[in-house]
Amino acid sequence: MLIPKKTKHRKSHKGRARNKRVATRTTTIAFGSVGLKALTSCWVTSRQIEAARRAMTRSIKRGGKIWIRVFPDKPVTTKGSEMPMGKGKGAVDHYVVVVKPGMILFEMDGIEIDKARVALELAGHKLPVKTKIITRDFT
Description:
This protein is of the alpha+beta class. It is built from 2 helices and 7 strands.
């Protein structure tokens, strides 16, 4: 699974403007010819990214190339069950990436477009965001 090697701060705040803004970066296909684009906003965990990657890899039978365009670098903390209020913030449990509408999550190249569409559709089912498959404009 994807986790950062080193972070500046061990724990982070949740952030204010969730589910309100659209993406300004990673909005176009940069490496491959087919991509998976997010239509809604959500936190995507490293486990979900890994599940989507495995689904794509198995679908294309280790052919072609896959690029993961997102990286989970935001720590999410949890406290134990039945803990009383207070006693500080909990320990880091897992890492997420904040996905905004318009972000490209995965890209593929080196296989036929119809096989890539099937693989990206399988990957989209593993993610908590609504997605659509887009192709690069060669104009």
